[in-house]
Amino acid sequence: MLARKGLLPDGFLLTRLAEDQNQPNRSRSRSQRARFITKTGSCNVAHKNIREQGRFLQDVFTTMVDLKWQHSLLIFTSAFLCSWMLFAMIWWLLAFAHGDLEPRSPSNQPAPIPCVTAIHSFTSAFLFSIEVQVTIGFGGRMVTEECPLAITVLIIQNILGLIINAVMLGCVFMKTAQANRRAETLIFSRNAVIAPRNGRPTLMFRVGDLRKSMIISATVQLQVIRRTVTAEGEVIPVCQLDIQVENPLRSNGIFLVSPLVISHTMERGSPLYELSAQSLASEDLEVIVILEGVVETTGISMQARTSYTPEEILWGRRFVSIISEEDGRYCVDYSKFGNTVPVRMSSLSAKELDQTRGVQGGGSDTHLQGWGLVRAGRGGFRRGGRTCDTAASQPWYTQSDEPEREVEQRGQKKTVQLEVMGRQVDEDRLGHLSD
Q: Is 134:158 a contact under the CB 8 Å cutoff?
């Protein structure tokens, strides 16, 4: 559908078809598990045996917005027809009670003043009801001063007609400006991949925005849906576990100006820490992706969703680069959006790799240098960057708050704290200034 609208090139869909045909068949011995979130982002949940149906009528506006278009248009048309018929009956009864429907004998005597002129039948009363509520005003029928009750009915019908117009137009506007409409131009890669990144197994997927207007304050949230059993034997069929998105700022915010590869490091504390290539095919889990933000042009909050089942997670593959620099600006080739290439990777899980490397829980002296002061070479420090002492890295916030520096003095190594060194440098500078 996007290709027909010109939003996606034809090569993008051809690449998707070729990728699906070349993908190995990973059949499972057990029956196919139902998805919690479909690939299009809709929730695959059926609500049954709801006894308190009256709660939906307490929020009529939201209920009408949530209805399908054919049901909304049916209610829209029925509301106007019913109101026109109701007030047509009222106008006909007023004319009947006042005697305006009685035939007049031809005589020279002046006819009595009717409540509403030119009403002779129910059809004429129905036409007058439409003229009043829609304010057409053809001029053939009008209310006179003869019946104060007719003036009251005229006021009530005008107020009720304005309310119906406001509610129906509000429902139509909200249905056309719903947040999921903007999500139609947000695309996710058909498959997620697991590949080594910085020496650690990493779950990755790609997300892109086809429009030039940006998503403000975009955030990505990952969750794992799996069936778990507690220590007491309680079975939780749908257990939601959050996954930390890999980001140096330790937040889920992204700048979605071009397609991005969102990653999650499968380290200690991750729900995927024990996932291996052999256990992936038999795992009963689903990775849910939720992208939220504010539409730049309308200011309306939006949300896009998708999910990845074990069959859609490729082990030992990574995404190809689709961004290139041409004529002084960056260009994105969406025909390679979902393309992957194989990489050399162990089939062991992250936990098994840590055990192979001799990493024990909480007892490792090696740590990952953070985004503050890191070693810049022998005997020096620099600010920024990210280096790792060993292949087994840990988050930057687990390092010591008081870094130490080893300096050589008189053939012996002496450990001096950075704060002490800084204080000595300041004293030396003050001494030189005083001289």
A: no
